[in-house]
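Hi L.,

You mentioned the student needs an example of a multi-chain input paired with its predicted structure. This one should do, with 768 residues in total across all chains.
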Amino acid sequence: METRGYKRPVLGIIGGGQLGRMLIQAAVDLDVEVHIVDPDEDAPCRYLAKTFSHGNYRDYDTVLNFGNGLANHNPVLTIEFEDINTQALEELEGRGVRVYPQPRVIKLIQDKGAQKQFYADNDIPTAPFHLIGNRAEALAYADKGPFFQKLRRGGYDGKGVMKMATAEDFNAAYDAPSILEELVPFEKELSVIVARNPQGEVKAFPAVEMYFNPIANLVEFLFSPAKITAEQEKRANEIAVQIATKLEIVGILAVEMFLTKEGEILVNEMAPRPHNSGHQTIEGNITSQYEQHLRAILGLPLGDTSLIKPTAMLNLLGEPGFEGEAVYEGMDELLKIEGVYPHLYGKRFTKPYRKMGHITVIADTVEELLAKTDKVKGVVKVRA
Amino acid sequence: METRGYKRPVLGIIGGGQLGRMLIQAAVDLDVEVHIVDPDEDAPCRYLAKTFSHGNYRDYDTVLNFGNGLANHNPVLTIEFEDINTQALEELEGRGVRVYPQPRVIKLIQDKGAQKQFYADNDIPTAPFHLIGNRAEALAYADKGPFFQKLRRGGYDGKGVMKMATAEDFNAAYDAPSILEELVPFEKELSVIVARNPQGEVKAFPAVEMYFNPIANLVEFLFSPAKITAEQEKRANEIAVQIATKLEIVGILAVEMFLTKEGEILVNEMAPRPHNSGHQTIEGNITSQYEQHLRAILGLPLGDTSLIKPTAMLNLLGEPGFEGEAVYEGMDELLKIEGVYPHLYGKRFTKPYRKMGHITVIADTVEELLAKTDKVKGVVKVRA
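Structure written out for the whole complex:
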């Protein structure tokens, strides 16, 4: 990006949640001037940006006005949440504004059907699937299940996903454009975060191994390096690089994968932004996912993704049964443990399973790490 | 600090420069609500706090009003610069506001004479000195030199310090309360950062070895671990812990030291706040000096200060000959080097030797670190 030199870049972020917040922490070091638009007056980024526009990022005019307001300052626009108005972003891109990730990539990923089709078209391994338009079309597959029905649009964090096994399930299917995906018995869930800059440089982070909370269907706990073979690690990395390259994405991309019982790697889904499965890179890797995203979208060289030490991440979810102003119980006890990093997201109100923060744990070996993480689990409780 | 639990603390920082900026980066993770007062409308913290009060922190009313404005929210007040109005802070402390470091500590350190006297009174090794009230009193020592004359008040970063060897020097002495300090031939300059919380827990960071820019008299480059013997490391640590304990300071304290040719350690001076010699702890140590300061003043347990990897820090100073809007040349080249972290302070305007940022370098061994740091030096130039 340098012609004469590097000068305070202007960045507009669509969305002001915890991902934006951690992106700002990294942006400070690169003297990036940050502007935010978010519908929540009390968003985690509220007081960490040069301007905060209160508005709905699903609304065409809101996004367009936000971009236009910055357009004279040669901005880069990015997202921290993909369910936003891409039409406005396309309009801005057409007027010469740099929008990274590109609106066409966001649109592709917003539609789980198009996403699956992209994998199929590009020889990227994924679970077999059928695209259906409504419940009636689902019924045609009633004797071929079980499947997961996934809404093509709007689902996230396990919302918009339903298991379909019995005739009853099929009768209760979502009556909307969906995919029916075959159930793959898997050994582990993995994630690989990859970044690509406009110059075409592509770098992936080491794979992380993820465990989900069965009730909230959220990542509860993950660690890196994943306990997989060197060959599986290589394969996971290759797939992520292949996707980023084919998409010609600019920015960061999280690729969630299944490691099947047979040792095969299948892509589950992807997100074109910093991701829950990359939080631990702040402490664990030479370059964090946030810095890497900034480097990519600002056209800077990508950073070294190597692990410094084995690292785990625990999500800090609102305790079931509590709703109101957040109180973090057990912080003292937590902070007495060495090599443990709380990241609170600055959300004033907690509710059951709301992502309120995360805790990173580092250790010298994976065994030590897992033992320590077990000790850390449940020490802090978010109540009201 | 926990009675029922940890709840968003309110922090007022007197000063909004780079130290405040990096303190905020750490405060974000602890969901600290930050308020700033600074005379510079364009201060590095300008857009990173919930409120920014534009005012002179040397002014009694400004500081008092700032503190009073927060007083209903059970705040902690801290500083990122010691040349501020302590009278107002004492007034606020008297009204029950937590002010850390305590105003009496700030006052002691503001006065280099009182600081030296504190060392003398507490058997803390320091270079021999004489307190003088004016130039006439200096002249009485004209045949006993050479000395450094240091103004008791207002000096920093080498300002207010003069070498006094010849009769001419003595005739040109500062005509103000000063210390005359004997010149100590030293081998190295060291710094140890130490923190103490209200519970009385005290922890020091490993020593760093510092090199100064002879023209600007600013730290140009430093690294940790220092190349000193285990015994010297232990002694440096002991002295820092002894000072923090005697002062009963709450917060962080940087203790600058000389290692004499004879291997003795003498205290040079101290600063009761995050310090230039602790910037590299962000990447290099389990806990950073910023997080440690927050833990201390919020009454949380102190963090592990161990080094993760050998780490160096280079100050990024404005190039001589350039004044105006800052442009960073060589950022691309810098960011191609692995394990290198620029921290730009967000100052819009550069001038010769202005502290515009710093670069942290990490490596697996001290030898590798020093070689890499040599490579990094001069890659980035701050011009206008």
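You could point out the following to them. The first helix of chain B runs from residue 18 to 29. Chain B touches chain A through 51 residues (CB under 8 Å).

Best wishes,
N.
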